[in-house]
Write a structure and sequence with these properties.
The termini are far apart. A hairpin with a 5-residue loop joins strand 3 and strand 4. This protein has 5 helices and 8 strands. It is about 35% helix and about 30% strand. The strands form 2 sheets. Strands 1, 2, 5, 6 and 7 form a 5-stranded antiparallel β-sheet that branches. Strands 3-4-8 form a 3-stranded mixed β-sheet, with helices on one face. With about 220 residues, it is of the alpha+beta class.
């Protein structure tokens, strides 16, 4: 009597292998929740960054007299001309928070800008007007609220080296913050603080009258 051996089809073996792998994965996930076993399956973060390199040194002769904190909500939408948003298009809602410094440049002062009387009791200083520095976004307080992308944009993120880039909204947020700083009294506040600082310094040196003006 001949006994026939029934062979398991190849697809059945493949399905069985997948089931075994999934079972192991689910078992591992359940073990993570058990006390004492979280470290076995937990994630470990390692910083493999290289050392920071000094590229240049700049001498700073400015007095940072004031700083403003700003926040802006950026709603940036990009649409394709002949395609619906579900196919091609992006919309990002981003909260940008940052600071702008206002300073007075003291590096260009010459003899004609500082006048002192003979008995050194009175001084007159002429300074340039306060200027605003570049907006600096705070990454700890800036974040994307929502992102909507069309199908083609999502597919492009898969093959992109920098998916979901937020550079566009970050630049826009910095620009709006800079515009808000220009419209504020930040520069005026910087000049007031600089005047107070110089008057206090020269009074401590024996000057009785200190006058500070601003102009070109």
């Amino acid at each position: 009597m001949t006994t026939s051996v029934r062979r398991t089809p190849g697809w059945a073996k493949a399905v069985g292998s997948v089931v075994v792998v999934l079972a192991v994965l689910f078992a591992g996930l359940r073990l993570i929740g058990l006390p004492g076993l979280g470290d076995v399956f937990g994630e470990e973060t390692r910083d493999r960054s290289g050392p920071a390199l000094l590229e240049s040194i700049q001498d700073i002769s400015r007095y940072d007299a004031a700083s403003g904190n700003f926040q802006v909500v950026v709603d940036l939408e990009k649409d394709a001309k002949y395609l619906p948003d579900a196919i091609r298009g992006t919309r990002t809602l981003y909260v940008g928070a940052g600071t702008v410094a206002a300073y007075v440049d003291l590096g260009g002062l010459g003899e004609k800008d500082v006048k002192v009387n003979e008995d050194r009791t009175s001084a007159t200083l002429r300074l340039p007007h306060a200027r605003l520095g570049r907006p600096a976004l705070d990454p700890d307080r800036s974040y994307a609220v929502s992102k909507k992308r069309g199908l083609l944009d999502r597919l492009g993120d898969v093959f992109s080296d920098n998916p979901n880039s937020e550079q566009a909204v970050q630049r826009l947020a910095a620009r709006h913050i800079g515009d808000a700083a220009e419209d504020s009294r930040l520069a005026d506040r910087a000049e007031e603080n600089t005047t107070g600082m110089l008057q206090g310094l020269l009074h401590s040196l024996g000057f009785e009258e200190v006058k500070v003006t601003y102009g070109t």
